[in-house]
Amino acid sequence: MTDFIIGPLPLWAEILTGLLAVVGAAFAAIGSFGLVRLPTFFRRIHAPTLGATLGAWCVTLATVVYFSVQARSLFLHALLIAFFVALTAPVMTIFLMRAALFRERQKRGDVPPERG
After folding, report:
1. CA 36 to CA 60: how far, in whole Å?
2. What is the rounded CA–CA span in Å between residue 72 and residue 30?
């Protein structure tokens, strides 16, 4: 049985959890602004990927701090979520970039020529 006690957190844990959650949400929001503000797809793809990954890490760290302090033991389950987000976001970006390059080459757009 776990010693999971629901009650108020110490002030330092509340501040750290709140700060990490707000910073994570801010990075995710700033990353999504890149979708609207940047002129081309190839420029727009980079900011959301970095913003989403960094935002997910900050929110995950907030979760780890909150539940570790609440349960009085190290809570590392949430790190799996951040690990999989960090693994899948760059892979998804590569697939999107390759598809965009293929479409631009079909339209004879201004992109580097295909190798090989």
Report:
1. 26
2. 34
